[in-house]
Amino acid sequence: MTYSTSTPNSDFWDFDFVQPQPKQDTDLLKQLDFVPGLKEILMLRQVHALEHATVWVLGERFGLSRTGSATTDKDTLGGLSTDQGFYLYGEINLPDLRRAVPLALRRITRGEWDLAVHPRCGTNLSVNMFLTAGLALGAHLVMPPGPVEQVLGLGLAAAAASQLTPELGSLAQKYLTTAIPFNLAVEGITATSDIWGNPAHFVRVRWKE
Known about the structure:
Elements: E1 2-3, H1 24-31, H2 38-61, E2 66-67, E3 70-71, E4 77-81, E5 85-89, H3 94-109, H4 122-142, H5 147-177, E6 184-193, E7 199-207
């Protein structure tokens, strides 16, 4: 997923009925330990949140210009989460990353839940594609069969999807693709490269009870 760093919405997680609990994933794993792959899924969600939090912290550290939720910086970072840790692609100094990751983990687990959600996450792209396809199909069935009407319906579907994506994408991240990383401990951060030889870093984590 690709990021341009911007300021998180500080009150997005401020709902008592969805307040993250430190032992929520540990308890779920104990209750459903017979489900194959559950631990890997839970760990992937937590790693994904830590990846987002790290991107936020890196952006704050370098004082990038921001206007609301829109970024004005020219630099972007790419990320990929796995159940063993996450990759960050782009020009990042290893010492800066080694400072940013523990800070991000500390902040997100101590109450800054909004760091888990990032507007440039690939989840939003998936939500947009799903919405566009669904609304386009609905427009095709509802609109008259003429080519002009069908094109108009497709345009309306695309416009509606683009308006709905930011909020629905954030909800998808919040409830489906991320979880507060209460069970993660950082094991190490190493420099590596992608398949094209571009600089990258891998942040390895482990599960803790």
